[in-house]
Amino acid sequence: MRNVTLFAQIMQTLDRFAFLKLVGKHGSDKHAKGITSWTHLVTMLFCQFSKLNSLRDVCNGLKSASGNLNHLGVSRAPCKSSLSYQNKHRAWPLFKDYYFAMMKKLVGMAQFRQTRFRIKSKILLLDSTTISLCLSLYDWAKFRKKKGAIKLHTLLDYDGCLPVYVHMTDGKPHDSTVAKELSLPADAVVVADRAYIDFPTLYRWKTNGSYFVVRLKQSVQFTRGTEKPLPEDRHQHILVDEYIELSHSKTYEKYPSKLRRVVVYDPEKDQTIELITNQFTWTANTIGELYKARWEIEIFFKEIKQLLKIKSFLGTTANAVLIQIWTAMITMLILKYLKACATYSWCLSNMVAFLRLNLFVKFDLNNLLNAPFKPPDPPESELPVQINLFEWGD
Questions:
Q1: How far apart (Å, rounded) are the C-alpha atoms in residues 143 and 148?
Q2: 51: alpha, beta or left, given left = phi > 0 and alpha = psi -120 to 50?
Q3: Which of 217, 307, 364, 373 has the least C-beta neighbours within 10 A?
């Protein structure tokens, strides 16, 4: 039995020294009124773990555990007006930089790496998700005439299924528009859906030494070249493996080089999927499996929307929304770190439910993660054994 709550033990995974260095770099506490940057971070993480719906609920909920947060540097829980003010005025890049600082630290400590592919290239998954908003409250998040929305354009590292790039826009920009500004590391392979078919962007990635696996649009015109032999004994779902060149003159000017076209049959949905790539040495089955792994980013979007507070926001300004998004990313990083360290085979949603129900319970975090269904040891009785009054001596 621990003398601090589960939430306090979870907060001990944070690197406070690294956060204070970033506070000094950004000057976030220079004109702070009411609450410091560290108190702001702890409060927003409590909002994510508890998934409360309002500023009042978050502040009142944190007050009930304020005595157990003193050792973390939080002297008192903030009031709702102070939290609302800081969400509006404190610059969101502080929380973005802290996410990447914590990811660099925790990913190196836990066993995040997946061993599904035996390739040396870093696998990156590219996609976006849309979050609907009320246009009358979020007038900056324009999407349609009477509907507001924001888009989270995300580049996910396949090894830990954690974002290495997140860019928020309103609902109007197309996915390929944001991808034009994206630079990839050399020898990395990016896997994306057909919304990212933009040949100048693909050619820029190729010239920079990166690879891509993208689903081909049916409207793209090409001429077929040399066809590679298909395996006879296995991987019967591979239908075509060939080299192609873009046939339309304007399209060829945007990508004046050969491409590899792999056609894969999906028996679950009874459809064929056409893929293009600039990687010519990997097997066709590896190309198909890489595109199948793209589903991990869809799972990530599902988890962050269902398990954390990211579909509704505590503030209406873009700064408040971005602070809540980046604290959600920090929360997801902590959760995946705890899941990777636990010996029990957790489903992430079950682990979040266990933690959420016991945030203020004084129980050892490691015991909860490693043996969640083991009953606690019975406490040793401090009272003497009751004498049986009806037991007569000789």
A1: 5
A2: left
A3: 373
Query: Which H helix or E strand runs over 240?
Result: strand 238-246
Contact call for residues 128 and 154 (beta carbons, < 8 A): yes
Closest CA to 45 of 318, 370, 339, 356: 356
Q: CB–CB of 273/194 below 8 Å?
A: no
Confidence at residue 227, expressed as pLDDT on a 0 to 100 scale: 87
Which residues neighbour 360 within 8 Å (Cβ) at sequence distance 6 or greater?
Answer: 5, 6, 7, 64, 65, 68
* Residue closest to 217 by CA, chosen among 175, 253, 158: 175
Model confidence pLDDT, tens digit, residues 24-40: 999 998 877 678 999 99
CB 74 within 8 A of CB 16: no
Instruction: Please tell me whether residue 307 adopts helix, strand or coil conformation.
Output: helix
Phi-psi region of 27 (alpha: psi -120 to 50; beta: other; left: phi over 0): left
Cα angle at 279 between 278 and 282, to 5 degrees? 155
Residues 6+ apart with CB under 8 A from 140: 170, 318
Determine contact, residues 7/79, Cβ cutoff 8 Å.
no
The first and second tokens of residue 285, run together, are 């089955």
**Alpha-helical regions (H) of 255-363:** 284-292, 295-307, 318-341, 348-357
Are the C-beta atoms of 38 and 366 separated by less than 8 Å? Answer: no
Q: Which amino acid is at 129?
A: T
Place of tokens 């246009």: 135
pLDDT band (50, 70, 90) for residue 379: low
What phi, psi does 245 have (nearest 5°)? Answer: -135, 145
Per-residue pLDDT tens digits for 326-354: 999 999 999 999 998 898 989 999 999 99
Within 10 angstroms of residue 45's Cβ, the number of other Cβ atoms is: 19
Which pLDDT band, with edges at 50, 70 and 90, does 146 fall under? confident
Instruction: Give the amino acid at 227.
Output: E
The rounded distance, in Å, linking the Cα atoms of 54 and 383 is: 47
Q: Rounded to two decimals, what is the model's pTM?
A: 0.90
